[in-house]
Design goal:
The protein is built from six helices and no strands. With 129 residues, the protein is mainly alpha-helical. α1 packs parallel to α3 (62-76) and α2 (34-52) runs antiparallel to α3 (62-76). The protein has one domain (1-120). Pfam families: CRCB (PF02537). This is Fluoride-specific ion channel FluC. It is a multi-pass membrane protein.
Length: 129
């Protein structure tokens, strides 16, 4: 049953990422892959938060927590698209954008994960009671 929940959540996460890509690619006219970058930053933050906060919600079944983290956020974020976009930038001799993209993605992802993790571990009186 857990596989089914993860699969359904994965469909939702991938679909959401696709919609965000369509939206941003419609109006973003620059070489920097903004849609993937923002999706990965949001996913890093949300996964950091989910990892620390959501397990404290006793009303959520562990299968649902796995479905949200692995299925929804795992399919929402995308390392493979990040990699392909970086290679495309390099092959088009857009070195500065490629290097900036890699550095911003690495450090931004770590920062957003850390922020989500800290938010999730902070004391919340609603949950503590």
């Amino acid at each position: 049953m857990q596989y089914l929940f993860v699969g359904i959540a994965g469909i939702l996460g991938a679909s959401l990422r696709y919609l965000i890509g369509i939206y941003f690619n419609h109006w973003w006219l620059y070489d920097f892959p903004l849609a993937t970058f923002l999706t990965n930053m949001a996913g890093s933050f949300i996964l950091g938060w989910i990892t620390t906060f959501v397990p404290r919600l006793k009303f959520l079944h562990p299968y649902m927590i796995t479905a949200i983290g692995t299925g929804l956020i795992g399919s929402f974020t995308t390392f493979s698209t990040f990699s392909v976009e970086t290679v495309q930038l390099v092959m088009n001799a857009k070195w500065a954008i490629a290097i900036g993209y890699v550095l911003l993605s690495l450090w931004g992802g770590l920062l957003f994960s850390w922020c989500g993790f800290n938010l999730g571990t902070s004391k919340n009186e609603v949950i503590s009671k």
